[in-house]
From TrEMBL:
<keyword id="KW-0175">Coiled coil</keyword>
<feature type="coiled-coil region">
    <location>
        <begin position="65"/>
        <end position="120"/>
    </location>
</feature>
<dbReference type="InterPro" id="IPR034607">
    <property type="entry name" value="CCDC127"/>
</dbReference>
<dbReference type="GO" id="GO:0055088">
    <property type="term" value="P:lipid homeostasis"/>
</dbReference>
<dbReference type="GO" id="GO:0005741">
    <property type="term" value="C:mitochondrial outer membrane"/>
</dbReference>
<protein>
    <submittedName>
        <fullName>Coiled-coil domain containing 127</fullName>
    </submittedName>
</protein>
Length: 247
């Protein structure tokens, strides 16, 4: 009975295990199917994320390529402008350089011509300065002579206009002026004798009765004195010109 009981217990245990196996296998199959779905779901989500990420990368790549192309195009345009500007500057510098060379050549030619003319003119210049110095000495003597004649003519006209001074004194002054105008070489050169005679005959102007300024008497005499001053200046340069032309 014990053996039987033992055998029966073993068989029952084996039967229990046999009966339990289908449930265990069924549970494992269900778990594997659910896991497969989760895996597929995660795989699909991963694929979608990968695809989206790839699309985003491609979009960014194309955007970067487009931006780089625009940047390259802009840089190429600026480079072309800079090259054109540089070429223009180079042409301008070359043109300016040629112009400067031509101007320098012209200046050298003009300088050579001026130096040649200077060498030719130098003797004439020396002669001109020498003649000018000589004529300036003559001019100083002539001006001094005119100052002396002015003083005597002023006194002569004062006597002419005076009611008290003797006429003989006036005639004496007139005679002395005519004599000096005839013998003095400067006065003779200015032909003063004819002018003095004209003054003595026609200058009858006097200031008012109460006039005390001698220089307010006479009119023609002052015109002649101014005329003789101009003749002195004119003769100086005329003589210099004649002396240069004779060289």
């Amino acid at each position: 009975m014990r053996r039987l009981s033992g055998t029966s217990g073993s068989w029952n245990l084996s039967l229990s295990k046999a009966l339990a196996c289908p449930a265990h296998l069924t549970s494992g199959w269900i778990w594997s199917r659910e896991s497969q779905k989760e895996i597929e779901k995660e795989r699909e989500a991963c694929r979608q994320r990968t695809t989206a990420f790839q699309r985003d990368l491609e979009a960014k790549y194309h955007a970067m390529i487009s931006e780089n192309r625009r940047a390259v195009a802009q840089l190429s345009l600026e480079l072309e402008k800079e090259q054109n500007r540089t070429a223009s500057y180079r042409e301008a510098l070359i043109s300016q350089g040629r112009k400067l060379v031509e101007e320098k050549k012209l200046l050298e030619q003009e300088r050579a011509q001026v130096m040649q003319e200077k060498r030719q003119v130098q003797p004439l210049r020396n002669a001109y300065l020498s003649c000018l110095q000589k004529e300036e000495n003559w001019q100083r003597r002539a001006r001094l002579l005119l100052k002396e004649f002015e003083a005597v003519l002023t006194e002569r006209q004062n006597i002419y206009c005076s009611l008290f001074l003797p006429r003989s004194k006036r005639l004496e002054l007139e005679k002395s002026l005519l004599v000096r105008a005839s013998v003095d070489p400067v006065a003779a050169d200015l032909e003063m004798a004819a002018g003095l005679t004209d003054i003595f005959q026609h200058d009858t102007y006097c200031g008012d009765v109460w006039n005390t300024n001698k220089r307010q008497n006479g009119r023609l005499m002052w015109l002649y004195l101014k005329y003789w001053e101009l003749v002195v200046e004119l003769k100086k340069f005329k003589r210099v010109e004649e002396a240069i032309l004779e060289k």
